[in-house]
User: Which sequence fits this backbone?
């Protein structure tokens, strides 16, 4: 039965270039989107650039440009990188575009009438040297809970959600000055009153990744504290409430709503129903794909906003079904640091390597259950050894032989029942693993089959059988073509560029399910799928 599937990829900040750590966290979303389209589901794969807030304003001041100019420039860079890597977003937008701004203002106008929103006079960090109020993430100090270095909104070491004024020895991350705390009036969402419903959500969703369940339960166990919906900021979406002129909607309370604004835009373009995509129901499935530092925004903040907007604990919106939250990717054994320029930038690496090579390594070695490391040596070893040595080698040796001795024409043959049976089992296994967010295992299952295919080719020795047993040689090549066709379909969510190339050679589509290439099909002279990398 066809499902409506919403896949939300995390929104990268448009104040600097993407690095490979971002890609490792985002690529699973594209795998999910391509797979669900292949099985016939109605997919809404959406994301965008997070353009508002102080990080963008500070970069703009440093470069002598406006925040819009800076965020638009990085947005264009992101779009270019995603296109080169084959990300198949249905809509990739930005938080500064009119459709998002309009949706957020409409949502917040209704939200403010909710019993879960109230006004409160509070303290907000102000940097005298910078001459501006600081968002919580631009205040740094010691965590009052564990003593480690933490930002004003969250401690990444112990996972505690914080308020800036609770930090010990707080300072402005821009200039290092100790901030003062000034009284100001803001709107707050009563997370404390929604705690029971949010606990129920966590308890009833075992398909979330383990780190998402653990982090969320830790926040809930500590007791949720109410959070500000508005802030004194220069760059953002205006608060749609009288008396709040000059204030902006806090970015954490508007960027997560991009999943709704962009999926509504996608639905409008298709002439389909946005409401049915966000309704509760068995045929609706929502994934959220991001790194572990974004977990609370998707398991607590977004659901809280959706629950509170209607003023009732029973939300009119569909709440998150599956949280695909990656661990971190390190670089040469060290944590990636943009401030120290210890990173590999996406805009550079997409020009150096084939997109499928990058996708393969980051998915086959991705930080699904634990932190993993990217090193150039391991990248080269993995691509040359498995992607090229196993997959590329099998395709090349089979089709080159076919072209050389049979003019590229698929010979008459009979599919080996055991091979066909293994492939059919593989479709079910890989489908299950993808839907469960176990991408590394899914890839390994296909490559296990390809290793067996290479062994099959060696054992059948068509170079000898061609003259000694022609019928056996033809049958071997016939079966190899069937294996290649189905490998292309199985790997299309992971390696779309090479799969599309093979599909063109063999005249197949990439819809999910067993493919039989008939004899008589003429295959053109094959090209090398993957380039061997040099150290």
Assistant:
């Amino acid at each position: 039965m066809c499902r409506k599937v919403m896949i939300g990829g995390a929104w990268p900040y448009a104040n600097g270039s993407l690095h490979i750590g971002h890609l490792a966290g985002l690529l699973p979303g594209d795998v999910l989107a391509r797979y669900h389209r292949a099985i016939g589901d109605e997919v809404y794969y959406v994301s965008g650039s997070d353009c508002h807030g102080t990080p963008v304003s500070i970069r703009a001041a440093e470069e002598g440009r406006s925040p819009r100019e800076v965020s638009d420039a990085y947005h264009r860079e992101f779009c270019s990188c995603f296109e080169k890597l084959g990300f198949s977003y249905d809509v990739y937008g930005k938080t500064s575009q009119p459709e998002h701004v309009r949706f957020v203002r409409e949502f917040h106008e209704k939200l403010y009438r909710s019993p879960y929103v109230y006004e409160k006079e509070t303290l907000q960090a102000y940097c005298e040297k910078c001459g501006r109020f600081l968002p919580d993430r631009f205040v740094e100090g010691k965590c009052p809970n564990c003593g480690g270095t933490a930002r004003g909104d969250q401690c990444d070491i112990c996972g505690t959600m914080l308020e800036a004024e609770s930090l010990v020895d707080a300072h402005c991350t821009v200039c290092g000055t100790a901030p003062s705390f000034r009284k100001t009036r803001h709107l707050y969402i009563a997370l404390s009153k929604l705690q029971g419903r949010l606990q129920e959500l966590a308890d009833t969703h075992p398909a979330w990744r383990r780190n998402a369940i653990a982090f969320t339960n830790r926040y809930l166990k500590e007791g949720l504290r109410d959070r500000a919906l508005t802030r004194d900021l220069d760059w953002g979406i205006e608060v749609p409430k009288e008396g709040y002129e000059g204030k902006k909607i806090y970015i954490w309370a508007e960027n997560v709503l991009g999943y709704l604004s962009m999926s509504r835009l996608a639905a409008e373009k298709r002439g389909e129903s946005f409401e049915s995509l966000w309704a509760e129901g068995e045929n609706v499935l929502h994934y959220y794909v991001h790194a572990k530092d974004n977990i609370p925004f998707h398991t607590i903040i977004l659901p809280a906003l959706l629950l509170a907007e209607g003023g009732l604990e029973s939300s009119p919106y569909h709440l998150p079904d599956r949280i695909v939250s990656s661990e971190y990717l390190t670089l040469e054994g060290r944590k990636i640091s943009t401030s120290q320029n210890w990173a590999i930038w996406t805009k550079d690496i997409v020009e150096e390597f084939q997109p499928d090579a990058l996708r393969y390594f980051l998915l086959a070695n991705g930080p699904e259950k634990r932190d993993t490391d990217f090193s150039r040596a391991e990248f080269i070893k993995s691509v040359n050894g498995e992607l090229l040595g196993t997959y590329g080698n099998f395709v090349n040796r089979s089709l080159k032989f076919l072209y050389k001795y049979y003019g590229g024409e698929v010979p008459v043959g009979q599919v080996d029942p055991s091979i066909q049976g293994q492939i059919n089992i593989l479709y079910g296994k890989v489908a299950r693993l993808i839907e469960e967010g176990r991408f590394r295992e899914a890839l390994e299952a296909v490559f296990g089959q390809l290793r067996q295919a290479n062994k099959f080719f060696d054992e059948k020795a068509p170079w000898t059988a061609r003259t000694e047993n022609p019928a056996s040689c033809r049958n071997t090549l016939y079966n190899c073509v069937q294996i290649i066709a189905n490998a292309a379909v199985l790997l299309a969510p992971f390696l779309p560029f090479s799969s599309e190339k093979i599909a063109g050679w063999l005249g197949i589509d990439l819809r999910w399910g067993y493919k039989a290439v008939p004899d008589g099909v003429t295959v053109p002279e094959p090209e090398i799928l993957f380039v061997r990398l040099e150290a």
